[in-house]
Design a protein that fits this description.
InterPro entries: TM_pro_TauE-like
Organism: Sphingomonas canadensis
Structural class: mainly alpha
Oligomer: single chain
Subcellular location: Cell membrane; Membrane
Helix content: over 70%
Family: Belongs to the 4-toluene sulfonate uptake permease (TSUP) (TC 2.A.102) family.
Number of helices: 14
Protein name: Probable membrane transporter protein
Number of domains: 1
Radius of gyration: 19 Å
Distance between the termini: 48 Å
Strand content: under 5%
Order of helices and strands: HHHHHHHHHHHHHH
Amino acid sequence: MRGIVRGFFESRIFCGWWGGMMLLWVALFALRNSIPFLIEHWYYPAIMVLGAFIAGLTPEGGGAAAFPVLSVFLDVKREMARDFSLMIQSVGMTSASIWILSQRGHHLPSYAPVLWFVPVSFLGFVFGMQAMQAIPVYIIQALFLSLILTFTLAYISSKHRGELHLLHARGFADHAMLAAVLFAGGIAASLFGTGADIAIYTLLVTRFRMDEKVATHISIMLMAAISILGCAYRFFWDGDVTDYQVRTWLCAYPVVLFMAPFGSYVLSRLNVEWMLRAIVALNIFQIAYFNLKNPTWAKLAWSTGFSVVLFAVFWFSLARIVRQTARRRAAGAGA
């Protein structure tokens, strides 16, 4: 146990960040929150124990747990569930990003594309906030639950294994595809607080054959930046962030500050197939609960339709890299 803790906190940069952010939390909690409020809203930090771990371990953000639990299970307004996802990821996924960037042996040029990924995705976020918010809530819930379920199903069942540590985008077609996926991911984040990470990860490991751990790290950094910018947009432009939202954010803040980078630490050392299977089981339960709670034909039709289409997209995208890898190995063996 001592060795795990020592390995996790081996970077002085990360230790300084983590300690500073904990001191900030103590100050903010003393000013804006209270122990009775924390006890009453215990489920916010409880949700993020798993959600933040998922955020650091996989290409899914912490919102993959926070949004459906709050929106579907606890009947929290969709906008508040989205905002909580963004607010909590702005701490957790940023903490995971700092941990990743501060570790020895990481090839920092691999993460350089994030510098232009972020503004393109944020444009999609702004567009989504301005033009997509009138979509009925149950359709957004069905889309999100189908998205995370089909992605994880395709992810664990496909033997995709990229090997490149640098993004090689050549010509207009590659850059246009990246821009389109980043823009769409930003729209997804405007609807349910996450999704940009899943979108870019899938493209990186398929079209561009990138190593899955590097692609996961890039997706974490992208979602961290979009979460910070999204929170700033909601706070300064919309002015709709309430004191209640700030207080619930403070309840879960220290949990995600630790659990998200800890997920990245586990990712760097373990085979995590068992964890991914557990996430699939959780996602199946969530979409089943969504359809069984106040069931309607419209909910069933939308969730089924989204699931079929999205699984086909993810499956064929991830299968593409398997075929390419097999052809390259066959060519190498023939040579």
